[in-house]
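Exercise 7. Predict the joint structure of the components listed below.
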Amino acid sequence: MVPLSYYLILSAILFGLGTAGFLFKRNIVTIFMSVELMLNAVNLTFVALSYHFRQLDGQIFVFFVMVVAAAEAAVGLAIIIAVFRNRGSLNVDQMDLMKF
Amino acid sequence: MPAWNLTAILPEAILTVVGIVVMLLGSFSSQNQDRGCRTVTLMGLAGATVAVVAQRQHQGAFFDGMFLVDPFGIFFHLLFFLIAALVVLSSADYLQAEKLTVGEFYTLLLFGTVGMGLMASANDLILSFIGLEISSLASYVLVGFRRGVASSSESALKYFLLGSFATAFFLYGIALLFGATGSTRLTQIQEILRNVSGRATAGAAGTVLLPTPSTLSSLAQGPEQFPTALLGLAASLLFVGLAFKVSAAPFQVWTPDVYQGAPTPVTAFLSTGPKAAAFAVFLRVFLVGLEQTADQWSALLWVSAALSMFIGNLAALWQSNMKRLLAYSSIAHAGYMLVAFTAHSVDGTSAVLFYLVAYAVMNLGAFLVVTHLGNRGERYVEMDDYAGLGYRSPLLAACLTIFLLSLIGIPLTGGFLGKFYVFRSALQADLIGLTILSVVNSAIAAYYYLRVMVAMYMNAPERPVPLEPVSSSVGVTLFICAGGTLWLGVFPQSILRLAENAAQWLLGAG
Amino acid sequence: MPNSYFQNYIPVLVMLGVVAFLAGAMLVLSYLLGQRRPSREKLAPYECGITPTGDARQRFSVKFYLVAMVFILFDVEVIFLYPWAVIFRELKLFGFVEMLLFILLVAAGFAYLWKKGILDWTKSDSGEFG
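Solution:
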């Protein structure tokens, strides 16, 4: 039997990795994947807690989070394609059309 | 019983169906169906409004307590429908000039409104999350709607990346709150926390340990018990996600870029609709769910309110682009609303609600003028382009003056009363420092709004700016916005009563 | 508790060790004992026995992204069918109607995609989406 805290710590680490990836990576697709990693870390938390509480709510939430993540991925890819067409680059440092 | 539940989400259901109809209408009809799409959209919004008004007779909790039909939710629903209708009405000319697909634009607006409606009525954090995502996904696409324009897709990208980043924090907050209390129903969380704090004050001092809820009694002996630290972490994560959505400092960095790059009608929508919806979730989560930990999060709100006002107003002083200027002013206005929120009282909450309505009409109006003057391709959005507008188009200039005066907070306008209620509630809650800061900020803000007015009435135009005649739909919307701004400033009672009713319900319900 | 928990993993650890040893031994032995007569054909990358053509790193047509996007969406929507499928007998007619509505909403999206020509694989690359 794995203690709950192991899962929570693992998911916190994954969430932290996602955050770090978001902040330090320069390629848009990688940044986007970092966000997905964060969402999946939260999914892990939900499942672990749901198992711990012996109730199904948490697992249902995971379904919804997964669907939302998929919808986000679709919209995100579309936006990334649009940006690539307009700019020909996927580096965030070059996204500087609007500065004052 | 399950089928009866469906009446609770009737407005959302109507809007979803209408949205899909408009989507299919736009793609399946061979000839131009712009007018048809607009008519269907407006009819759908009207139908949803009727459904909401009818719901006032059937209040209560639905879907096992996930969805609440209460005065608070109804207030926000009506506000959202008003905003959506005004945006739909006013955006026709813009869409035509920019050659954008009308059906999809309205569909996304409707879906966004559905998400906002769910956010306002959600009593379950997961439903709040889904509503937040529905409205966010729609707005991400709307921001990048001018596909061929680099700045539009770039701001969509920024909004999308930062938005989903913030959403992940919000979701993690939900997960931790679920872990701390074993529930995601806000009213249940409220009860659980009340019991805990009641026991803590009655019992011996020491670290307050959250017991696992009574329904999970088998776990009471378990080794895992969650300290309040977890609750604090959950609250701050939720705060990060929501502060991002209302563009409050220090999570406001995306606002100027996104507001500048988005199509102007979309900017108008974003700065009023999703912002109000995020405030609805904000109020519900913190005033209902986390009510017991108020002394912890009110410090957080205090700092965020002060920072938002200063960052928004000081940065706006240097702007020459009108959309960017209004974006910074939008951050500052979020700060004013947070001031009232910090008061944590019925008065404060109703002040937030009233301010949201006043801000919606005046800001929609201001952006509408900016849209109209921007002309094709949004070429004329610099402040210099407004020079001499008072002579070239007195009526348009007069409308913009009303909106700007209201944004400053001059008496006889909705903005003044909004600020007045905010300051009053803050003073009543002994937030004297914060009140002084907000008054100082109102004075700073007056400077950059007045600069626009000076340009309009006192400067001569430097380059010729073409001026299209105002079409009837834009004229009607302008009239509604200007009339609404003045009406709120002179006869605020009816809206204020609704707001107070909603606030009382929210704070007294538990 | 953690101790007994980790004890469960000892067989896995043993197996990992055996696998690593075996694989390493085979590689080392073949390196030491085998004879090597390299030729151009033998050094070329192995691709199902067919002579490789072109560079592997080229840009894909944006169509693939579109199909991937659409696939993700419709694929993940199916997730909701699983919990429903488990209990649809208990839900009776209500559950059936609910799921029918859900499928209808998804189908409306599908009709929209179809009409927009996203499923049309042969459409030229310069189209509205492709």
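Discussion. Residues 57-87 of chain A form the longest helix (31 residues).
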